[in-house]
Amino acid sequence: MARRSSTRKAVRSNLLRKRLSQIRLFATDVDGVLTDGGMYYGESGDEWKKFNTRDGMGVKLLQRGGILTAIVTQERTKLVARRAEKLAIPELHQGVMDKLLCIREMAERHGLTMSQVAYIGDDINDLEALRSVGVSASPADGMPQVAAVVDYVCQKKGGEGAVREIVEMILEAQGQGSSSGKRP
Predict the structure, then answer these.
(1) What is the CATH number of the domain that holds 78?
(2) Phi-psi region of 161 (alpha: psi -120 to 50; beta: other; left: phi over 0)
(3) Which of 109, 112, 121 is closest to 71 using CA atoms?
(4) What is the pLDDT of residue 181?
(5) Short-list 120, 117, 99, CA closest to 108
């Protein structure tokens, strides 16, 4: 019984690796993925979000590797626009109510199929998109409904390196990971 289980895991792992090798567009949600999901407000009405610098480096590594990067979020904030600008993310989509439609249109615009898209999300408003892309992922602390449908549940939580974790998997599958010794 244990042998059959390990064989199934190896087959799933090989299939995931093959799909990761085909990714050309990486899209991410913001709250609960690039951040810890917290929303912090000051007395003067200022809003703060904490982003993980390692996730940011992961985005830059993807870009250097020739992979298009995108943010797709229901929120609409200047903070997210500034983060996207700092990371030179070319596809910033805020206030998106239909994430699947947004991702599908983005893929079409760039001549890609949905199987060439990876998306990481953490909540029920991400489910349709997660079910439709080539590789789907969730942070460790994503909602159970999300964990049930994604290809990969990260070991890291949102805002604590989950994006970098899936980025490293993509780069490794494409022969660009840090363990391959190649620099993007």
Answers:
(1) 3.40.50.1000
(2) left
(3) 121
(4) 45
(5) 117
Q: Residue 56, exposed/middle/buried by CB under 10 A (0-12, 13-18, 19+)?
A: middle
CB of 21 closer than 8 Å to CB of 180 = no
The answer to whether the beta carbons of residues 119 and 133 sit under 8 Å apart is yes
The answer, yes or no, to whether residue 135 has pLDDT greater than 70, is yes
The residue that leads in pLDDT, 176 or 24, is 24
Q: How many residues are listed for the chain in this entry? A: 184
In a domain, 70, yes or no: yes
pLDDT of residue 72 exceeding 70, the answer is yes
Asked if the structure places residue 5 within a domain, the reply is no
Q: Does pTM surpass 0.70?
A: yes
Q: How far apart are CA 125 and CA 119, in angstroms?
A: 13
CB 94 within 8 A of CB 6: no
Element (H, E) at 82: helix 78-86
